[in-house]
Write a structure and sequence with these properties.
single chain, about 400 residues, alpha/beta, L-arginine/glycine Amidinotransferase, Chain A
């Protein structure tokens, strides 16, 4: 599989996910805020909903497409002793308050399964003194990295609660053969900078959007922009968005749906002005020019005329309710073929008004499991899937996916 993503909407060919495991059952109410969860979720139902979502992906993907589990990849990577030692050394460095250096030799003697358990659940066999918090946010693989063209931007989490996931991703890119073709093109963020994949949207191989959110710092954004501009991207649109829980990443309020359509949360996108800066390379320098709105900037630098479809429709209350339940966080399986939580009914109704056919997950799977998608401008499909437990984690279909391969298609 060739690792390359040159569009948010290219036909999905390879994606990294994580089906919820025991780590989500280790989140107790006293810890949920520290672990960035608004609620505790029921593992068994969340697993079932996630696995059902993956069946939708598989039905839509071309022959040979792959859905990859991140813990499987990590387990494979740390079969390599150098990878294990690297990961452990980074843990010790990034979490000095945990005093893990005391058990460095013990950690390095763990077999890969034990180290995986320690990484995801925080538990160390035979020890109570050195247990860490679980990593329930591993569910949201989107935030760990972003493939842009034939390069990869490795995220650096803004919070300690997710930093361990960043170290897992760095280990994967450095040591897993899957990433051999892109590891020399990796863009890395270091120090106190932060950027997370939910803030990175790839319009094309020449145009990338990066949100400056509560999780992506100004310096992290600039470092990422510099790296991408050095790897073939011509323009980065920096989008300043509200620094609040409801809009933690750009993709919680804005996503791409088709060649010329996006889903947008009106108060944070359509009603904002002078919040976009276009970043370009000029010799050894980056030049910045402000733009009046995201829509005008996107149209200007893409050469297209984008239609911004309103999350929640026209009703103000519905807009806020459905953005809260990830109505704007849709995931494109192909141009004009998108998936999202079924509970966002007003958003789906609005998509139907814009020419989309509506199908639930079961209808879509039955229709396309043994049949290729008909990809054309007249066959736009909005697919709903059940996610009543998954939704409690505050992330939708795009949040739960890290595409690493998309086929370039124009319809």
């Amino acid at each position: 599989m060739k690792i390359n993503v040159s569009s948010e909407i290219g036909h999905l060919n390879g994606v990294i996910v994580h089906t919820p495991g025991h780590e989500v059952s280790l989140v107790n109410p006293e810890l949920k805020d520290e672990l960035l969860f608004d609620d505790i979720i029921f593992e068994e139902d969340a697993r079932g909903e996630h696995l059902d979502m993956l069946e939708v992906f598989k039905a839509a993907m071309p022959k040979g497409g792959q859905v990859l589990e991140i813990v499987d990849l990590f387990s494979e990577a740390i079969q390599n002793e150098s990878a294990r030692h690297y990961f452990i050394e980074q843990l010790i460095k990034e979490f000095p308050e945990e005093n893990l250096s005391v058990i460095q030799n013990e950690l390095k003697s763990l077999d890969p399964i034990e180290l995986l358990t320690f990484s995801t659940q925080g538990t160390l066999k035979g020890s109570t003194e050195f247990n860490l918090h679980p990593s329930p946010n591993l569910l949201f693989t989107r935030d760990l990295a972003a493939v842009v063209g034939d390069s990869i931007l490795i995220s650096r989490a803004a919070t300690k609660a997710r930093l361990r996931e960043s170290l897992m991703m760095e280990t994967l890119v450095s040591y897993h053969p899957l990433f051999d073709s892109v590891k020399n093109n990796a863009v890395r963020i270091s120090g106190h900078q932060s950027i997370e994949g939910g803030d990175v949207l790839v319009e094309s191989e020449k145009l990338v959007l990066i949100g400056m959110s509560e999780r992506t710092s100004f310096t992290g954004l600039m470092k990422a922009a510099e790296g991408l501009l050095n790897h073939g991207v011509e323009t980065v649109l920096a989008v300043d968005i509200p620094k609040q829980r409801a809009s933690m990443h750009l993709d919680t309020i804005f996503t791409f749906a088709s060649e010329t359509e996006c889903i947008a949360f009106p108060p944070a996108i359509l009603e904002q002005h002078d919040n976009v800066v276009a970043l370009k390379k000029n010799g050894d320098h980056i030049v910045a020019d402000s733009r009046s709105s995201l829509q005008s900037a996107l149209n200007e630098f893409s050469g297209k005329e984008y239609d911004f479809i309103k999350c929640g429709g026209e009703n103000r209350t519905s807009q806020f309710r459905e953005q809260w339940t990830d109505g704007a966080n849709v995931f494109a399986l192909a141009p004009g073929v998108i998936v999202g939580y079924e509970r966002n009914t007003k958003t789906f109704n609005t998509l139907v008004d814009h020419g989309y056919s509506y199908m639930n997950q079961f209808e879509f799977i039955e229709e396309y499991t043994d049949k290729d998608l008909e990809l054309n401008a007249e066959n736009k499909i909005a697919v709903s899937f059940q996610g009543h437990e998954l939704c409690r984690g505050r992330g939708g279909a795009r949040c739960m996916t890290m595409p690493i391969s998309r086929e370039v298609l124009t319809i």
